[in-house]
Write a structure and sequence with these properties.
Radius of gyration: 13 Å
Number of helices: 4
Largest sheet: 5 strands, mixed
CATH topology: Transcription Regulator spoIIAA
Helix content: 25-40%
CATH architecture: 2-Layer Sandwich
Shape: globular
Structural class: alpha/beta
Order of helices and strands: EEHEHEHEH
Length: about 120
């Protein structure tokens, strides 16, 4: 069974976009995930929101890819946020402490509000 990852970029503001993730995040998804990040990062993007509501499966290699993505985001002085994680994956984010670096939100509205509200 081939691992399938489909991603869609949705611009929300001139500096914020959502990447809709559908399918599996495993080692096979590396090229797709990094390509979509590079595309989403163009034109002065400051915040990237990952929509995990279509996530079917993620293994330890997938978690490693998210760490790699997080490092790239931090190098670019961007923010990485996420929503739509199932309880199972939310627990994994807490165990790996990814939730301390990637802001987790209940839904798309909450994530967009976190980005667009001045701090």
């Amino acid at each position: 069974m081939p691992n399938q990852l489909t991603t869609t970029i949705r611009p929300i503001t001139p500096h914020t976009c959502i990447i809709d993730v559908q399918g599996d995040i495993t080692a096979q998804a590396e090229t797709d995930l990094m390509n979509v990040y590079n595309e989403a990062s163009q034109n002065g993007t400051r915040a990237i929101i990952l929509n995990f509501s279509g996530l079917d499966y993620m293994n330890s290699s997938g978690i490693g890819l998210l760490v790699t993505l997080l490092i790239r985001v931090q190098r670019q002085k961007q923010r990485l946020l996420a929503y739509g994680l199932s309880d199972h994956y939310r627990q994994i984010f807490e165990l790996t402490r990814l939730n301390e670096a990637i802001g987790l939100y209940a839904d798309e509205t909450a994530a967009i509000t976190a980005v667009t509200t001045p701090t």
